[in-house]
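As promised in the previous annual report, we have extended the structural survey to additional targets. Below is the entry for Cobalamin biosynthesis protein CobD.
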Amino acid sequence: MELLAALILGFLLDQLLGDPQISCHPVRLLGNLIHFFERHFFRWGKGKKHALLAGGAFMAVTVCVVTAFFVQGLLFLAGQISPVIHFAAESLLCYFLYAAKDLRVESMNVYQALKENGLEEGRKAVSMIVGRDVSRLDEAGVIKAAVETVAENTSDGVIAPLFYMAIGGPVLGWVYKAINTMDSMVGYKNETYLYFGRAAARLDDAANFLPSRLSALLMVTGAFLCGLDGPGAWKIFLRDRKNHASPNSAQTEAACAGALGVQLAGDAWYFGVLHKKKTIGDNRRSVEAEDIKRAHRLMMAAVLLSLFLAAGFQLFLAG
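The corresponding C-alpha cell record, generated without further manual editing, is:
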C-alpha cells in the first residue's frame, strides 16, 4: 500500500508543482550519465559497424543497471533512516517521473500563442516540444504538432512510467525512464547513430509496446467519458494504429485523431529534408486551436483511468 500512496502523491505533486527546473533533477543527471557512456563507447567503436553496435548495446545495458542500482540504493539508505524518509524518497522518485503538467503547460503555450499573438509566435511555442522544422508549418500544422505531442506523450510521459512503477516501483520506473531518455538522445536513424543507437531504439520499442497500447485503449475509453467521439476513437485506433515507422507512436495518435474527428500526422520536414509519412484519422473537419484543449481533456481522462488501474493492481497484490 505504501507504493500506491507514493504513486498517487507523486502524481498530485506533479499536478501542483510541475517539473522542477533544478540542476540536480534526476532526469538531467540521467542524461549526463548517458552522455558520459556515449562519449566513451562511441569513440571506442567509431567507424566500425559491429563495434558501434556492441558499444551501443553495452551502453544501454550499463545505463539500465547503474540506474537500477542507484535508485535501489537510494531507497535502501532512506529506509535505514526511517520509514517516513523512505516513503518521502519513494514519492519524490515517482513525482519526478510524471510529466503530465508540463505537457499540458507547454502545449497550452502553443494555444495561447496562436490565440493572442498569431502564427509566428505559435511556431516558436511549438518548437519547444517538437523536433520538426516549424518554419514550414501553417496554423493547422502547428495545432497538429501540439495535439500529436500530447497524444504520444500521454503514453511516454505519464502512463508508461506509471505502468512500470505499478509493477516494479520507482526502480523499474526509472529503468524505463533511462531507456526512454537513451532513445531520445541516441536512437536516431541517421549517419551518426544508425548503429550505435540501435540497441537503445530497440529497447525503447520493446519497453513501450504494452504501455502504448494500454494508453490508446484508455484514451478510447476516456473519449466515451469526456464527451468526445468514442466510437470514432475505437474505429481509427483499429485502422490507423500502425501508420507510423515506430510500432508504438501511432497507437495513441490514432485514438486521439478518432476522438477529435480530425486527421493527424502526414508529411513533415526535419532539418531541411521532407519525410513522407502516412496520415492518421479522417479529415472530417479542419483542426482548430480548441483541439489542443480537447487533447488535454482526453489525456487527463486516460491518465486518471490508468491511476485507477494501478490502484486496483496494487490492491489485488495486497490481497
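The beta strands are 264-265, 268-270, 273-275, 279-280. The chain has one domain: 2-314. These points will be discussed at the next consortium meeting with the crystallography subgroup.
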